[in-house]
From TrEMBL:
Its main location: cytoplasm. It comes from Caloramator fervidus. GO terms for cellular component: cytoplasm. This is Isoaspartyl dipeptidase. The lineage of its organism: Bacteria, Bacillati, Bacillota, Clostridia, Eubacteriales. NCBIfam families: isoAsp_dipep. Its EC number is 3.4.19.-.
Length: 385
């Protein structure tokens, strides 16, 4: 069934002005000032007063749930499709976290397949917080080369009391293996690094970049906005050509303790001309544990994927141009993860799109040409929702 979005302001992310956009199957067929389909049955979507954005890419979501830092009862719940759609997310990368024992890669894979069957695009990281990493096949290289959904390794914890305290040699080898298997399989092979609050911060990654041939872009550090010191280091890392990722799920208590709100971190990077080096991810369904200075757990929240666009929207309301702000959840993750048909409103690309209304609220979500939400009404729920 053909769909035609009429007279909509297109942000590809770059602003293209008012256009008609024709969707043919699961692809973007045509973008032009005027597209007329004479004599063919087509579903018209009125774009007047709305803006069209590429579907959002959230490259760090605990789709099978995570947590556990407060014992079994704090294992967080798995994600449901409707939350993903409400967040305008059409591509998601699933990850394990602290608990790579009761949470399995096989379960992560099955959930990614389930979400794909329900209509969105999914990938996963092999591994979890710990080194040596959990794998499907016993080797991250075989996982990356042989399992299509595996596009990288993560989230590998550094500078955190919950990490496996990996040596620099272990991280070098892991990044080298991810890089070579990415090259051999035409994938990104990025290492998604969980940055904790430890005072060494990004030091280990900086040393690896300084002392080996591994390019800085092999690493994809997240939670870089979690404290001012790490944020400053992250800006330096980005100025060296690295990618940095800010977490949008948060809690007011974290801001009081120095976490930089993701929208502010994004604004600062764009002001420092680093708009191509930065992404936002939600850490959805992951735990947001709060530890006291003795590292005792004193609180735990659950991350939400709906915070992803909320932080982009806050950045826009804070003066960041829309076409720059949305790159952090569309074109940039697509580039970092080497998703060649995603992240842009371009002819021949996947028909993953979000329509927002005049107040920048998500109004309609289209994933691979299928309308998942229209006029703020969810049309497609998860199988058991
Ligand atoms: C960035 C902060 C606020 C949250 C962050 N979450 C995770 O890393 C995921 C979590 N450990 C899980 O396995 O579900 C953290 O714990 O540091
Ligand atoms: Zn993490
Ligand atoms: Zn996480």
């Amino acid at each position: 069934m053909l769909k035609l979005i009429k007279g909509i302001e297109v942000y590809s992310p770059k602003s293209l002005g008012i256009k008609d956009v024709l969707i043919v199957g699961d692809k973007i067929g045509k973008i032009d000032d005027e597209v007329d389909i004479l004599g063919v049955e087509v579903e018209i979507i009125d774009g007047k007063g709305k803006r069209l954005l590429p579907g959002f890419i959230d490259s760090h979501v605990h789709i099978t749930g995570g947590g556990g830092e407060g014992g079994f009862k704090t294992r967080t719940p798995e994600i449901v499709l409707s939350d993903i759609i409400k967040g305008g997310i059409t591509t998601i990368v699933g990850t394990l976290g602290t608990d790579g024992i009761t949470r399995s890669l096989e379960n992560l894979y099955a959930k990614a397949k389930a979400l794909e069957e329900e209509g969105i695009t999914t990938f996963i990281y092999t591994g979890s917080y710990r080194v040596p990493p959990v794998t499907f096949t016993g080797s991250i290289m075989k996982d990356l080369i042989l399992i299509d959904k595996v596009i990288g390794v993560g989230e590998i914890a550094l500078s955190d009391h919950r990490s496996s305290q990996p040596t620099i040699e272990e991280i070098k080898r892991l990044a080298a293996d991810a890089r070579v298997s990415g090259i051999l399989s035409g994938k990104a092979g990025v290492v998604n690094i969980h940055m904790g609050d430890g005072e060494k911060g990004l030091d280990m990654l900086m040393e690896i970049v300084d002392t080996t041939e591994i390019p800085i872009t092999q690493f994809y550090p997240t939670h870089v906005n979690r404290n001012p010191y790490l944020f400053r280091q992250g800006i330096e890392f980005a100025k060296m050509g690295g990618f940095i990722d800010f977490t949008t799920s948060s809690d007011p208590v974290f801001y009081e303790e120095g976490e930089i709100k993701a929208s502010k971190a994004l604004k600062k990077c764009i002001e420092d001309d680093l708009e191509d080096n930065v992404t936002l991810t939600s850490d959805g369904q992951g735990s947001l544990p709060k530890f006291n200075e003795k590292r005792e757990l004193v609180g735990l929240q659950v991350g939400r994927v709906t915070t992803l666009f909320k932080e982009v929207r806050d950045a826009v309301f804070d003066g960041v141009p829309l076409e720059k702000a949305i790159k952090a959840i569309t074109a940039n993750p697509a580039k970092i993860l080497k998703l060649s048909s995603k992240g842009y409103i371009k002819e021949g690309y996947d028909a993953d799109m979000v329509l927002i209304d005049e107040e920048y609220n998500i109004d309609t979500v289209i994933a691979k040409g299928r309308i998942m939400m229209k006029d703020k009404t969810i049309l497609t729920y998860g199988t058991f929702e």
